[in-house]
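Section 3.1: Structural characterization of target chains.
Under the original work plan, the team committed to producing a structural model for every single-chain target entering the pipeline before any wet-lab resources were allocated. The record below documents one such target. The sequence was received from the expression subgroup and is listed exactly as submitted; it comprises 383 residues.
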Amino acid sequence: MEQAAAAHSALECEGHSGGGERRRGQTVDANEMPERAERDGERPKSPRRKRPTILDVAAHAGVSHQTVSRFLRGNGGMKPQTVARIEQAVAELDYRPNLVARSMRTRKSNRITVVLPTMTTFVPSQILRGASAEAQAAGYMLDIVGLEGDEQARGDRVRALLDSGQADGVLTFTPIGDVQKLGLEHTPTVVIGEYDDQMRSHGITADGEPAAKIIDYLASIGHRRFVHVAGSTDWMSARKRREVYLRTIAERGLENYAVIDGDWSVRSGYDAAQGLSVDSGVTAVLAANDDVAMGVIRGFQDRGWRVPEDVSVFGWDNQEFTAYFNPSISTVDLDREAMGRQAMKALLARIRQEAEPEIHLDLNSSLVLRESSGPARTGHAIR
């Protein structure tokens, strides 16, 4: 009875407006509402556009909603024509999965955490770009965190993240200790262990084998005496490049004039070039990275030496500026995005409890030949 009276009272209240009183039960002409709203200083609200649903996508594509659901989960095994129709429907309807609703329904966060050591000024952006693209295509948001402490401490934090439900999976590019002791062997966790506590690469990206490709190329255009301006020996990647450089020089019967210790900086390259003896006979320099190569080139230019007519210079990493420097810098391109994608695919398979794809962490290095490298000089000495 009280509920009925309250409802009756509410109906009576609806009959009142700022302009006067309406009799109980009196109806209002729908056509009059916009005029009333305008008269009362209100604008009529435009109807909200209905958000497209998975059923709308299915109807638009001419498939079942189960097929669309499989597509959104990235399960695969679908005909290319079906995939194309669903992709077109998603684009035309501007469909976006309701991640909040999905999270409530599935008890999943739809978030993936990527773990790095304590954040520094260096972030492996190419690897993260590949991982992020793969995660977003599967409907996941990516959280990037830097965890302090040793391997055990980071492992405990990863365990807590998964237990709390804040993340459906964890991809870590830094070691987190014994996975079995942490009880993580059956959880959606993929450990690449690529960087140490100072973000120094000691995994696949520390591979120094591209140095052999550089030496072989330079030797093919006449170079016989080389200098290597190295990175900091604290980094395994620097040690690997130095090691492969020296090994290749020896195996090819070439001559190493010097390995000059550097610290990855432009300044270290500049100082190395400024200090090179005029009668060294060196015709090619392999720099530890593109920053060092830029410093080497500028150091030679300030001495009046020409690059590449007097000395060729080769960098490493294919940073964007290398294409625009004068001269543009020959360098090595490493497909780090592919590494990020493959690592994320493995994690997504664990989250879905599917067979994990084999991870081929091959960086597919390739030489990018530009203006800073050319045939070895003949018949003249550097002045």
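Confidence is low (pLDDT under 50) at residues 1-39, 193-206.
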